[in-house]
Structure formats: structure tokens, C-alpha cells
From TrEMBL:
Keyword Metal-binding: no
Alphabetic keyword roster: Membrane, Transmembrane, Transmembrane helix
Signal peptide: none
Presence of keyword Nucleotide-binding: no
Membrane spanning stretches: 37-55, 67-85, 91-111, 123-143, 155-177, 189-208, 220-241, 277-298
Species in which this protein is naturally found: Photobacterium jeanii
InterPro entries the UniProt entry points to: Na+/solute_symporter_sf (IPR038770)
Protein name (record): Bile acid:sodium symporter
Length: 310
């Protein structure tokens, strides 16, 4: 069963979002346990990565260059487009918050499921998450002036729990557990990791369904915006990094489109307003459709590159 799930994980991720939308009560009931699932997802992923290698990767300019593109570059692009299309201040605020958001903590597991570099995905995820509060602060300052506050205490508590905690536990395991035994254990755990990822599209889409129940038209409008934002981030990431190779470009694209909107909501609180909550749910389906798209287009892009080289 697990090999089947792993093989078809890209399709199942999309289906998890659809099922959560169809059964909003179950989705909303699942929502409170997502932070606990997030912790174990990070831990299981980190067990397969040597911490020294991760820290070396985090120390590279290319990782922080990506983080700046992820937060600043895409904030400028998306907010400019939204402004030109006449978005309200509240909607512009929501889009700027999504643009500042770091990549999903599930991104390394998703990268593994579609054959991309897990180590680089983890480094890019951590860097974009660390950069998020500063960019979010600037974005909100430019749009709202001084009439807001960020819950930095909650943010650093969550950073400690969900990043520093798993990194420390993983480092202790690599230090004190026999490498061969740890490798065997991780090989087994890796089969379950993708199951944990399914929880996020399923658990985050329930609130979005409530909007559809109130107004299908408004729900469709936000879904269209969610698709547009994810598509914009994906295309921008791919073309900005295409010169570094197809796999690197696809990794940048999917990391740029994956957004940890739940963490951003925790940091900024209810100040972000109902527009952000609606957008948070609306991007779940397009976000978790992207791995299926990447799995489909990756071999074709590689084949096209080979034909050009020949």
C-alpha cells in the first residue's frame, strides 16, 4: 500500500485538498492537530539529512539569494499586478502577506516525492521562513502605515518548535545513533512522510468551503485569485532559475509557489482580516496540484533540453 501511495503521491495530494473541500466538518476537525503533524514531518525529513551538510547549504549565497527573490521579488511583482488591477487595500494586504510568507515546511517532503533535491529544498524553506517576519513587517508598513503589530513571541516560539526542535533532535540522532541503523529507520519512516503531507491540504481547506457555502461566486473569485498567485509564483521561479538547470528551476518554482500561510496567520494574527483567511484556503488546491504538474512536465522539459543539445 505504501509504495502505491508514494508512487501516486502527487495525485493524492490534490485529491486530499478536494476531499477536505467536500467534507469541511472533517477538515475543520483536523485543523487543530496540524502543528503536531508539522513537527514530525520536519523531524522525519531532517533525519535523512546530515545537519552539517544542511548548515553548509544554509550558509551559501545562492540560498539567501533565493530567499530574497521568494519574499521581496515576488512581493513586488504580485502587489504591483494587484494594484494595477485595482485591488482593494484589504485584498492588497492579504496578497502582500501571502507573498512575504516562507515556503511550506512540507516542501522538502514534496520535493522528495517528485525526485528533486531535498537538502536544497530544506535550506530554501528555512531561509525563506527566517526572512519572512522582516519582509512581512515592511509589506504591512507600506500598505497600512503604523497601525499594526506582529506577534513576534509566537513566531519565535514556533520557529523554535518546528525548526530548531527537529534540527536538534535530528542532530542528536546523527551524533549518538549508529549510522547504518539510522539509515534503516529513516528508510522506513520516509515511506510514511508523504502521509503526513496529506494532512495539510485536507486540514486547511475547510474554512474556504465555508465561504462557498455563503457565496459560490465570491468563493470562485478567491479560487481564481489563488490559482493566479500560485501560477505567477511558479512561473516566475522557473524562469528566474532556468539558467541553473531544469531540476533547480523546478525546485525554485515549486518552493516559490508553496506558502506556509498558516504560520503567517499565526504571526500577524487576525489583523490580516477575512480576505487573508479566504486566500489562505483558496491557494490550497492549486498549491497541491503543482507536484502533479511538475511530475508531468519534468521529463518533457528534460527531453526537450536533450533535443536542443543534440
Amino acid at each position: 500500500m505504501l509504495p502505491f501511495i508514494s508512487k501516486h503521491s502527487s495525485l493524492l495530494l490534490m485529491l486530499a485538498a478536494i476531499i477536505g473541500f467536500l467534507f469541511p466538518t472533517a477538515s475543520q476537525a483536523f485543523f487543530p492537530i496540524l502543528p503536531f503533524i508539522l513537527f514530525f514531518l520536519m523531524l522525519f525529513t531532517l533525519l535523512g539529512i546530515k545537519q552539517a551538510a544542511l548548515l553548509r547549504q544554509l550558509a551559501t549565497l545562492k540560498v539567501w539569494g533565493y530567499a530574497l527573490f521568494h519574499a521581496i521579488g515576488l512581493s513586488i511583482i504580485s502587489c504591483t499586478i494587484a494594484y494595477l488591477f485595482g485591488a482593494s487595500q484589504a485584498l492588497l494586504l492579504a496578497i502582500s502577506a501571502v507573498s512575504a510568507t516562507g515556503s511550506l515546511f512540507a516542501t522538502p517532503a514534496i520535493a522528495r516525492s517528485i525526485g528533486l533535491d531535498t537538502l536544497n529544498a530544506m535550506a530554501m524553506t528555512i531561509a525563506s521562513t527566517l526572512l519572512m517576519p522582516a519582509i512581512l513587517y515592511v509589506n504591512l508598513l507600506l500598505i497600512e502605515g503604523n497601525e499594526f503589530s506582529l506577534d513576534m513571541q509566537s513566531y519565535f516560539v514556533r520557529l523554535t518548535i518546528f525548526i530548531a526542535g527537529p534540527m536538534l533532535l535530528s542532530a542528536l540522532c546523527h551524533r549518538y545513533v549508529n549510522p547504518d541503523y539510522l539509515h534503516r529507520v529513516h528508510t522506513k519512516l520516509a515511506q510514511f512522510t508523504i502521509l503526513l503531507v496529506f494532512a495539510f491540504p485536507f486540514g486547511l481547506v475547510g474554512e474556504f468551503r465555508e465561504m462557498f457555502n455563503i457565496s459560490a461566486l465570491v468563493g470562485l473569485q478567491y479560487l481564481a485569485m489563488g490559482i493566479a498567485i500560485c501560477t505567477l509564483f511558479f512561473i516566475a521561479g522557473y524562469f528566474c532559475y532556468r539558467s541553473t538547470g531544469i531540476d533547480n528551476a523546478l525546485l525554485a518554482a515549486i518552493t516559490a509557489a508553496n506558502r506556509n500561510v498558516l504560520l503567517t496567520f499565526t504571526v500577524a494574527g487576525s489583523y490580516l482580516g477575512p480576505e487573508y483567511l479566504a486566500l489562505m484556503g483558496a491557494i490550497q488546491l492549486p498549491t497541491y496540484t503543482l507536484p502533479l504538474i511538475v511530475k508531468f512536465i519534468a521529463p518533457r522539459l528534460h527531453q526537450g533540453r536533450l533535443q536542443i543539445n543534440q
